[in-house]
Design brief:
278 residues
Length: 278
């Protein structure tokens, strides 16, 4: 029954995402499959955090769309997520969900909270931080960068990242209370440590999300694959710019935007696991 409910809910939300142009066709199919697994193998905690990330990020991407449109030309991926982006943001969490279904343990859930906090924090920082009136600065040396440049951070973006991670942590605690099956603090401890468990989930979201978000910026400033526009000489993520093919500029050739997202998510999940022993 859980699998049927998951398939129905995931299908409806994916269809909405496609209609609203939040998802491409491949992205909608990937999201429907992923959402089904999140609910069928997990519960509301797993499925709810996935949907919270997806909807909040999609809504923020539409804020002041015209102001962001020019910067999006420099990104490898636009605001309409394809299957690659869907799996880069939610694929690791899906594996953790399956792992928890096979061998339940609090570590699966904490790592998942850290991963979802990372992708949410990164999305909120990008969408909200890009609206800052002050230019971002390099995470490496503090040098002023152009808005939207990889490896850039700003006060507004950092606050947005912290807010995104915190929201995921709070939501994880709330979902775990509503749907106690699979809750690492009620099911495994007999419900005796709910307040402490809530604190751990909230901090895992906040700290894990910030750690993963800064890891994303660091990778973007150092090893992410970047190209140079032959027309305007700008460093961008795309293979086409100003209507012409771009040329290799720097970074590891396999370290594209999706790989950066995946690795930074792992970093956020690893940091969140520290709260298992605190």
């Amino acid at each position: 029954m859980d699998w049927l409910v998951g398939a129905l809910c995931a299908g409806l939300i994916s269809g909405l995402g496609y209609r609203k142009r939040w998802l491409s066709g491949s992205g909608a199919c990937a999201a429907a499959m992923m959402g089904t697994i999140y609910y069928g193998a997990g519960n509301l905690l797993w499925f709810g955090l996935l949907i919270l990330f997806f909807i909040s990020g999609s809504v923020l991407s539409k804020m002041k769309r015209e102001r962001k449109r020019k910067m999006e030309q420099d990104y490898a991926k636009g605001s309409r997520r394809d299957a690659g982006q869907v799996f880069a943001n939610g694929g690791l969490g899906m594996l953790l969900c399956i792992g928890n279904a096979i061998a339940p343990h609090p570590a699966w859930v904490l790592a998942f909270v850290g991963i979802m906090a990372t992708v949410t924090a990164d999305t909120w920082a990008t969408e909200w931080g890009s609206l800052s009136r002050k230019p971002p600065r390099s995470v490496l040396n503090g040098r002023v960068l152009e808005p939207g440049a990889s490896g850039g951070i700003s006060l507004r973006g950092t606050v947005a990242a912290a807010a995104g991670g915190l929201v995921i942590g709070i939501a994880a605690w709330m979902f775990s209370i509503i749907s106690p099956v699979g809750n690492p603090y009620t099911e495994y401890s007999g419900g005796s440590d709910l307040m402490h468990g809530g604190w751990q989930l909230i901090m895992a979201g906040l700290i894990g999300g910030l750690a993963g978000c800064f890891a994303d910026s660091y990778l973007g400033a150092t090893v992410q694959l970047m190209y140079r526009c032959t027309v305007c000489d700008k460093i961008v993520e795309t293979t086409m710019h100003c209507g012409q093919p771009t040329v290799y500029a720097r970074g590891w050739r396999w370290m594209n935007n999706d790989m950066v997202n995946a690795i930074s998510s792992i970093a956020g999940g690893a940091v969140a696991l520290l709260f298992l022993v605190i």
